[in-house]
UniProtKB/TrEMBL annotation:
Keyword Phosphoprotein: no
Domain AMP-dependent synthetase/ligase span(s) in chain numbering: 34-402
Residue ranges annotated for the AMP-binding enzyme C-terminal domain, each copy included: 453-542
Matches recorded under InterPro entries: AMP-bd_C (IPR025110), AMP-bd_C_sf (IPR045851), AMP-binding_CS (IPR020845), AMP-dep_synth/lig_dom (IPR000873), ANL_N_sf (IPR042099)
Organism lineage string: Eukaryota, Fungi, Fungi incertae sedis, Zoopagomycota, Kickxellomycotina
UniProt family annotation: Belongs to the ATP-dependent AMP-binding enzyme family.
Name of this chain's protein: 4-coumarate--CoA ligase
Example GO molecular function: ATP binding
Amino acid sequence: MIHRSPHPPVDIPLVSIPAFLNHHLDNSPYWSDPQRPVYIDGTSGEVLTITEFRAGIRAISAGWRSRAGLQKGDVVAVVAPNDIYYSTAIFSVLSAGGTISPINPAYTVNEMVYQLTDSGAKYIVVDTTLVDHIRRAATEVGIPTDRIYTLQKTDDSASLHSLRINPTHPSLAHHHAGEELLTPTELHHQPAYLCYSSGTTGRSKGVVTSHQNIVANLIQVDTHQRQEQQSHAGQVLAGVLPFYHIYGLNMLIHLTLVQGSTVVVTRKFDLQTFLAGIQKYRINFAYLVPPIVLQLVKHPSVASYDLSSLRGIASGAAPLSVSLARDIIAQYGLDVTQAFGMTESSPILFLSRHANRNLDAIGVPIPSVEAKIIDPVDGQLLGPHQHGEICVRGPNIMRGYWNNPAATAATIDAEGFLRTGDVGYVNESGEFFISDRLKELIKYKGFQVAPAELEAVVIQHPRVTDVVVIGVYQPEQATEVPRAYVVIKPSTSTSDSELIESDKVALAQDIMGFVSGQVAPHKKLRGGVFFVEEVPKSSSGKILRQALRKQLQKQLAEEAKGLISPKL
């Protein structure tokens, strides 16, 4: 059975993201005040008004084409934490016909080199604090330094603002929103964004998110929220989600412009800064991830702040437990909703219908999304309360993986349904629930960690002969953490068992340090390193991760009591 939204399908215009947003900025009553803040820096208090915002995009977009030489389809990497000018960088490039590839600013040089190379980036916009870091990566890739622009104004390097064309310049007379730069076919297929995702397995891949994908998801989410009286139109929102992640990108940069909301931008999440921002700017709503929700419930300093303006939260990127949802409702009286999606779906697929009800559900399909549950083995459709893989189809589903037709074919079937890699079921009311995961990904505080990528690093340690990495859920952090189980090379002076007993702590710490020096912070082996005699594999050599997880679950209770050390 195919399941659909309780709300009617929506019409999706074939227009560029800038053209779609300009329409809302021109016609929304919330943006009629020329001094209305679009973004407020939660630390410094600097304000970017709607007038400044639009003028900056128009002038810099023209500069991308006339000064930087950006051509239609060129990829611009943006490497920065949250900033009130982040969206200026994005929309100026999109308006000039370019493509944005957001990069996690915490990446190592090697990780940045991989994304810059794979995406084919020709230009870089970077936070001033990361200039030296990105220059090393750019040099390795072959991107000239004169194509690197800082997000903020600086004296010693070219900045994004140096591309601005003077308002009286003749070129601006012919520069429009950018919709005329792309043909209908390009609007449908050319990437507006190349965000990177590990999908259901393997190393991260570029997700081709078109202009139509983003426009579709904005209309879908806005329609659902309005129909369910959950719209945040005209409100003040907390900008704590990272803008380089598709969740923050669409909810805090795109949707807020559609709904006329002001965003209080937090450069990097810090609980005290977040709480102070709610109190000072009277924030009404926050898109969050479970670990932040946990801090709101548990941290003692919360009581020192006035959070009375906060009316509700939406939790996404990872499941929010029922107990945690109930705790925050009881403590603050908030409206709590769930959101479920993927980078591959631009990102939202399911949203709660009613706040504070069926808290274990991920919600119903948003308008124009079709969903089904299939047997992961034979692909047969399953009925209500039968557990299987959740598959989805809709106008917000990616065009495919960048230059990777094999991965695309393995993820999207011939009928256009995307396999999410998540196991769940649907009830008689059409609400969906997550019960397990087929995909190998670990979710650390909403960030994807591909086990295969970590295993490729661990195996390079001189004492390791085999390794498997899996996610271990830690309730005290409300998130999974990566844990490695390794097989070590025999020592000439000490047997394996003797080494493990006498020096396993030092060796485990050495392996963790070895990994930490080569990966971004969210990929660190926070779940520890443990030693095993062998890694369980199938006859074909495939690691039996599901079997490991099930065996680990049986041992977690004893491990938590300190009765045993984890063994496989």
